[in-house]
Amino acid sequence: MKKKNTAGAIIFAAALSISACTGQNAVQEVIGEQTQESSTAEAVYEGMLSDPAVNGEKNTYSTLNVATYITKVEDTYFIADCYHDQIIYNKNLTDPLSQWSVLTNEVHYAHTIASDGVMFLVDDTENNRLLAFQRTDDGYIHTQTLEDIGMRPHYIQYDAQNQVFMAWSSITGEMYLVKKAENANERGIYALYVDKILKIDELYGVYVRSFTVMEDGIYFVSGHNNQKIIKAALNSSQDRFDILNEYQVTGQIAGMVQIVKIGDFYYITISTDNQENQDYATILRTDSLEKLSDGNYEEIYEQFGVSGGTPYYITEIDGRYYMAHHRTNENIIAFDIRQNQIEHVEVLY
Questions:
Q1: pLDDT score, position 216
Q2: How confident is the model at residue 18 (pLDDT cuts 50, 70, 90)?
Q3: 2, part of any domain
């Protein structure tokens, strides 16, 4: 997308264990005059919706319009149907889209959804906010809206070990850490609140579509206007990020969407070049991020047998990989990777 995270829990315990590196650029926590202080659970409950309704009406569209993300939470699949301004869900991936249900259509470009199994958090990108939902015996209810989440929040993951949602503001270089209150209110509804906001000053004003927690750090993909991948770590003793490394990339692949490590390779989806030209959309892989600066990588887009378009977020669900894909009729693509070989490519929707 010119304007404008892997399924399940994401853990960055490895990043937490990394100490601050002497001489590295520190990424300071935003507090005080730059942002609100962490909300108490009591204060958050005052902002809850007074009469939340159960969602779940049937999807009225027979196709997807710019799918950006697919994930599975327990026994239910969720798709971000971005340009239809909705999140839809279903128990299987074989029913036609008209049989899926709508979690919400009160968003303007939702890119991702994350969950701890009870609470679900959706990025409402163009409205600079997050929408919270809770699964109940009666269905999913919209419980809360978190306003003023940076600029164009674009990617959310749930860190199960630290029990926190990580929501990324794609333009301001801010990571919003959102927690769930320990106890539900008298109606059994939980509140979510912004606990901390961490900031990477170097990424302010840079369009960064995602982050990935893997190996020994948190990786922020290149934006078309900065041409480098940033590797950072959370400094647990000082509540901040430390920049550990920067990997330069060529202008042709600068507008990245996501980076994931599968087997021996880093797989990177590309939306545009450094001029925001979507004709450069592709998928590449490399065994070393240092090689990207001189164009030493393998383009693998043609192995998916698709008719062009823009590959977006890749997720892993039950041992299989799924890629959201837009500017084409092939919107959700499933595939396997075994011994570094791409196999069993299947267009689902």
A1: 87
A2: very low
A3: no
Sequence letter at residue 348 = L
Is residue 163 included in any domain, yes or no? yes
- 125 three-class SS: helix
Which residues have C-beta within 8 Å of that of residue 170, sequence separation ≥ 6?
A: 4, 125, 150, 151, 152, 153, 154, 155, 207, 208, 209
Q: Which domain holds residue 107?
A: 13-347
Is residue 332 one of the residues assigned to a domain? yes
What per-residue confidence (pLDDT) applies to 288?
Answer: 97
Closest Cα to residue 130, out of 157, 93, 90? Answer: 157
List the CATH number of the domain containing 336.
2.130.10.10
252-281 burial, b at 16+ Cβ within 10 Å, e below that, comes to bbbbbbbbbeeeebbbbbbbbbbeeebebb
- pLDDT confidence band for 53 (50 / 70 / 90): low
Token pair of 302, please? 């043609």
The tally of domains found in the chain comes to 1
Q: Is residue 44 part of a domain?
A: yes
DSSP of 92-124, one letter per residue? -SSS-GGGSEEEE---SSEEEEEESSSEEEEEE
